[in-house]
Backbone:
């Protein structure tokens, strides 16, 4: 009899133990959900606060007015035009160079110390603080090359920041392409470059595009390196228009113009003591947030849809 | 045959031309690859040459051991320690927030969350990594610090606690995503082994998956430290510009990055000692982040080689 009850006791003890451990499982699960949930809610509140604070300012005038000493009439015209022009430069420098490096590392480079050296450098550049790029640009572009505190300098600086992102995403996209695609092209007599351009790059396009969008989104929000090269914080004029009404219909004088960008305008307004300027800062912040979240969202959506769609 | 004949066939000529173009393209691609090396050398070269005159005026001993950084005073003194203390204090606060939250998030996503929840949360995490830091600076100065002042009324407007906490929140998605990748890379067979022995999910996560992914998780922490040290806008906006040798989070202090920004915002006199000093500060920052990044990558690599 006592043997049986001992057996029962043991069984009950084990059941209790299992129950306890299962409870631990559930508790941790709730903790995890709670932490993620509260982080999400905290960030949501922060973003909503930004949008609500800035909302009354966001209208057409805000985009068409220059910054001013009076917070009510101040706008972000020079900032968004500056951001757009800087991004054009960044795009045309970082994209060809980044894609070309990515192709070189994946398709052309032979395994060895040279490829390793480039790889190590790319990996390290991705981790260099952005302000260090600002110092590089200040010493090299502004003074050594004499480009001054211009749109060209800022565009080049941000393209250095964007480069590792484009290289890494290009490489990942190329690496996912199976070798038989290449072999099929080689079999019908294509050269290496033809294989790369007509086949590898075509299939990698989605992944490359993802990297480009994420890099551009990062470039929009970057503040520190642009401040470091000495961008002005108060600009009440526009650079010369890139498009003219006389032949050849475009000019490059805007490259040398002084400028400001959206995040610097926001920084400038945050630093003022008056509350009215903080509202302007919130409105600018809302514009930046919406732009970057939108771009990142598109990029992430693109990446997930590629992952789902392509079955080799 | 072709050698003796000075006239080569058109097909062969086309071949030669084609090979030549192919070679040109390869060289062009290689040059783009070299740019990455050039940028690294450029950074080292500029930092060293531009700060060289600075170290002629200020001894290395004063730079590394003096606890006073007063570039704007009559009696100029350049000791980097106040900037380093500010940088480390804020990064430390950020880690206190980010390490527990980031690790729990990673464990939850990797071991507990259903496929559907994971596929919803992961993109959101990626989205958060892209939020510009100037926006987080706004939160730190105008939302978090006023909130903290309600709890602790003596807190000055510029302090290290607010930006530290905000920086921590900013780093959480980063730690979570790197650590989650590390834990997901642990082979399923190891988990199945634990489950077969009767372990629960939590036991498996803590005593099988996490130990196996230790180096990946540690790498996530190291890379997070590096990010915190290099972070600029949050601290430049919310921690103040006054170099202050203190580890007290409720005081205001400048970081290395904040100092560089404050000098760059003023009138930069090219070749002046103020101009040179930001490159000297930049060297310290670069060495700190570079060694952490190398350590982090090394740790992570060690981990991927194991399976």
Residues:
């Amino acid at each position: 009899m006592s043997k049986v009850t001992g057996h029962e006791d043991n069984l009950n003890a084990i059941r209790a133990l299992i129950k306890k451990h299962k409870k631990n499982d559930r508790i941790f699960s709730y903790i995890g959900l709670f932490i993620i949930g509260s982080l999400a809610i905290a960030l949501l509140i922060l973003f909503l606060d930004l949008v609500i604070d800035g909302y009354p300012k966001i209208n057409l005038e805000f985009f068409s007015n220059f910054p001013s000493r009076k917070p009510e009439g101040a706008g972000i015209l020079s900032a968004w035009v500056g951001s757009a022009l800087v991004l054009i430069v960044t795009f045309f420098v970082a994209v060809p160079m980044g894609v070309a490096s990515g192709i070189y590392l994946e398709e052309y480079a032979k395994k060895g110390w040279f490829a390793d050296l480039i790889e190590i450098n790319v990996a390290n550049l991705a981790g260099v603080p952005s302000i260090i790029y600002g110092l590089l640009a200040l010493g090299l572009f502004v003074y050594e090359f004499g480009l001054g505190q211009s749109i060209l300098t800022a565009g080049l600086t941000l393209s250095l920041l964007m480069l590792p992102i484009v290289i890494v995403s290009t490489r990942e996209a190329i690496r996912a392409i199976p070798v038989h695609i290449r072999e099929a092209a080689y079999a019908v007599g294509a050269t290496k470059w033809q294989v790369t351009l007509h086949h590898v790059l075509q299939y990698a396009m989605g992944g490359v595009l993802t990297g480009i969008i994420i890099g551009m989104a990062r470039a929009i929000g970057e503040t520190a390196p642009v401040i470091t090269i000495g961008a002005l914080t108060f600009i009440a004029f526009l650079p010369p228009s890139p498009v003219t009404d006389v032949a050849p219909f475009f000019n490059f004088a805007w490259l040398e113009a002084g400028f400001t960008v959206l995040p610097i305008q926001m920084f400038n307004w945050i630093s003022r003591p008056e509350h009215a300027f903080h509202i302007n800062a919130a409105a600018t912040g809302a514009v930046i947030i919406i732009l970057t979240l939108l771009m990142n969202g598109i990029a992430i959506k693109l990446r997930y849809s590629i992952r789902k769609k392509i079955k080799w | 045959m072709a050698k003796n004949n000075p006239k080569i066939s058109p097909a062969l000529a086309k071949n030669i031309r084609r090979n030549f173009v192919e070679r040109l393209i390869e060289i062009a691609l290689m040059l783009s690859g070299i740019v990455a090396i050039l940028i690294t050398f450029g950074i080292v070269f500029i930092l060293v040459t531009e700060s060289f005159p600075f170290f002629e005026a200020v001894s290395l001993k004063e730079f590394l051991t003096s606890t006073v950084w007063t570039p704007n005073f009559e009696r100029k003194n350049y000791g980097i320690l106040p900037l380093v203390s500010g940088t480390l204090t804020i990064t430390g606060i950020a880690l206190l927030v980010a390490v527990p939250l980031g690790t729990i998030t990673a464990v939850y996503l990797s071991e507990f969350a259903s496929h559907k929840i994971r596929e919803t949360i992961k993109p959101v995490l990626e989205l958060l990594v892209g939020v510009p830091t100037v926006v987080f600076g706004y939160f730190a100065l105008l939302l978090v610090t006023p909130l903290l002042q309600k709890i602790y009324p003596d807190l000055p407007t510029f302090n290290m606690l607010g930006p530290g906490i905000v920086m921590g929140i900013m780093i959480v998605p980063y730690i979570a995503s790197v650590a989650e990748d590390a834990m997901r890379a642990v082979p399923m067979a190891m988990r199945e082994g634990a489950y077969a022995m009767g372990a629960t999910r939590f036991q498996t996560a803590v005593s099988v998956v996490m130990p196996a992914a230790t180096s990946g998780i540690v790498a996530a922490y190291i890379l997070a430290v590096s990010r915190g040290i290099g972070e600029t806008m949050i601290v430049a906006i919310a921690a103040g510009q006054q170099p202050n040798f203190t580890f007290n989070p409720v005081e205001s202090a400048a970081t290395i990055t904040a100092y560089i920004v404050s000098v760059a915002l003023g009138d930069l006199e090219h070749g002046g000692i103020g101009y040179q000093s930001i490159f000297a500060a930049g060297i310290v920052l670069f060495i700190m982040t570079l060694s952490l990044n190398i350590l982090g990558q090394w740790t992570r690599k060690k981990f991927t080689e194991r399976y």
